[in-house]
Write a structure and sequence with these properties.
The chain is mainly beta and 60 residues long. It is built from no helices and 6 strands.
Amino acid sequence: MIKYLYPDGSHCYRALHTAHAVFRNADGKLIARAEKADGSSMYEFEIAGFELLSPGIVYD
């Protein structure tokens, strides 16, 4: 799993296989590119950071 941290302090979890890229855009913002839940296409959104979560470890 990957945990995306949003600039507003919120977060979301996504399956790792849906993550395609994390990069900085021309403005220096951290951007994630991920696959939509239905697999139809990809979209990009701004993030503040991310964590890769390991199975069997409890994050709290």
